[in-house]
Design goal:
By secondary structure, this protein is mainly alpha-helical. The protein is built from two helices and two strands; from the N terminus they run ββαα. The longest helix has 50 residues.
Length: 161
């Protein structure tokens, strides 16, 4: 039996050497030696930026990436439990509900008063009409000048014979 290994290797597997890439360093850019084909007046400004390996390399300024701006520090003061805008909206809702309830109650009272007034007015009008239609002796207790004449006719028939 084979020796125990940390992992299982398939049959016919032979490990190979891994080639590690070591890039050659760039020659530093010498600003002191002017190029004959590049007149000094046409030269663009050069900035030094770090490359992927941490080395500083020259790059034309117009091609350089923008500088990283440090973010503004955050405000870490504790916030209120309820948002002030939410508090105002909630207060407006409660106040609006109370206003609507009060207005509804007031309108109901006005309608009830109008209904009561009309009902009471109808009763008073009926009493006035009734008082105008009653005879005067009913109002004065029977001591008025009205005379009632009753005439009674009695007929008796007699048969003699």
């Amino acid at each position: 039996m084979n020796e125990p290994t940390a992992y299982h290797r398939p049959a016919g597997y032979e490990p190979t050497a891994v080639e590690v890439h070591h890039p050659t360093p760039l020659a530093p850019y010498d600003l002191a030696t002017p190029v004959a084909m590049d007149p000094y007046a046409e030269r663009q400004p050069v900035v030094w930026v770090p490359d992927a390996y941490g080395r500083m390399v020259p790059m034309p300024k117009h091609l350089a990436p923008p500088a990283v701006v440090a973010p503004a520090p955050r405000d870490l003061t504790p916030l209120p439990l309820l948002d002030p805008v939410a508090q105002r909206l909630m207060g407006a809702g409660i106040g609006g509900g109370a206003l609507s309830a009060g207005a509804g109650y007031g309108i109901g009272e006005v309608i009830n008063a109008a209904a009561g007034f009309s009902g009471g007015a109808l009763i008073w009008i009926a009493l006035v009409v009734l008082a105008l239609r009653t005879p005067a002796r009913a109002i004065t207790g029977g001591k008025g000048s009205t005379v009632n004449i009753r005439k009674a006719v009695i007929k008796r028939s007699h048969f003699h014979g």
